Amino acid sequence: MKLKSQDGKYRLTDVVDIEGMFRIIEAIPSKNAEPIKLWLARLGKERIDEVFDPSLAVQRTIDTYRIKG
Q: Is the dihedral of CA 27, 13, 44, 38 positive or negative?
């Protein structure tokens, strides 16, 4: 994909979608990446739980709305 660089010219640039980004993070063999991997696993579990119990998703939405004011 051509993206505008700092010098104002458009250059071919490698890009990745969100799913690809998560796959890259999963593949990083580093202790520093472990907190992100744990966060992704927890987030995935929460979303799967919401599929089986939609009231969890509603409650999450309410909580997020209250936090944002």
A: positive
